[in-house]
Write a structure and sequence with these properties.
This protein has 189 residues and is mainly alpha-helical. Helices cover 49% and strands 10% of the residues. The protein has one domain: Up-down Bundle (Four Helix Bundle (Hemerythrin (Met), subunit A)). A two-stranded antiparallel sheet has the order 1-2. Strands 3-4 form a two-stranded antiparallel ribbon. Helix 1 runs antiparallel to helix 4.
C-alpha cells in the first residue's frame, strides 16, 4: 500500500515533469506539436491533452471536486497556451490534494462507473491513486519520445533528479533543488 508521502512525491514529480515537457513542447510550432506522429493519441498536443483528461477523470474520485473532462481521445484545448494554463491549474489541484492526505483517504475500496469499461468498477483506493500517477508517467514517456523525434531534448526525466524538498510541515513538495534526506521528515542532505 502507498502512503501520503508517496502521493506528495508523485504530485511534485508530476508538476516538475509537466513544466519540463511543456517548456520543451513550446519550442515547437503549433503545427509541429499537432502533427500526427503515429502515437496512440497521434500528436504531442493530443497526448498532452489526454494526460490532462486522465487527471480530470481520476482526481475527482479522490477529492470530490468536478472538472470538465469530455470524452476520451478528444482534445480539451486546441490552443496550446490554454492547455498549458489548464495543466498548471490541475497540477496545483493534485499537489493540494496530496498535501492534505491522511491514511484513511487511501484505505478502503473505490467504486465508480468506468466510461472505458462501460460498467461499475471497484478496486482498492490506493491502487486507483497509483493508477492516476502511473497514467501520467506512461503518457509523458510517450511525449518525451515524440519530442526527441521532433528534435527537442526534454532533458532528464528520472525521479531522483526531480527538485524535491520538504515544506515546513515535512511534506514532500517541488523545490528549486533536491533537498530530501534518507530520513522521512528529515532535512536536506
Amino acid at each position: 500500500m502507498i502512503d501520503a508521502e508517496y502521493c506528495q512525491t508523485m504530485a511534485a514529480y508530476n508538476g516538475w515533469m509537466n513544466r519540463t515537457l511543456y517548456a520543451a513542447a513550446a519550442k515547437l510550432t503549433d503545427e509541429e506539436r499537432k502533427a500526427d506522429r503515429g502515437a496512440f493519441f497521434g500528436s504531442i498536443h493530443s497526448t498532452l491533452n489526454h494526460i490532462l483528461w486522465g487527471d480530470r477523470v481520476w482526481l475527482p474520485r479522490f477529492n470530490g471536486r468536478s472538472y470538465p473532462a469530455g470524452r476520451v481521445g478528444a482534445d480539451l484545448y486546441d490552443d496550446f497556451m490554454q492547455l498549458l494554463e489548464a495543466r498548471r491549474a490541475m497540477d496545483d489541484e493534485i499537489a493540494a490534494w496530496a498535501a492534505q492526505l491522511d491514511p484513511a483517504q487511501l484505505a478502503g475500496t473505490l467504486t465508480w462507473f468506468s466510461g472505458i469499461a462501460q460498467r461499475e468498477m471497484s478496486r482498492p483506493r490506493w491502487l486507483c491513486v497509483m493508477q492516476m500517477f502511473n497514467h501520467q508517467t506512461h503518457h509523458r514517456g510517450q511525449v518525451t519520445t515524440l519530442l526527441k523525434q521532433a528534435g527537442v531534448d526534454p532533458g532528464v526525466t528520472d525521479l531522483p533528479w526531480a527538485p524535491l524538498t520538504r515544506d515546513e510541515q515535512g511534506r514532500v513538495v517541488l523545490g528549486e533543488t533536491f533537498g530530501l534526506s534518507a530520513n522521512r521528515g528529515g532535512g536536506s542532505e
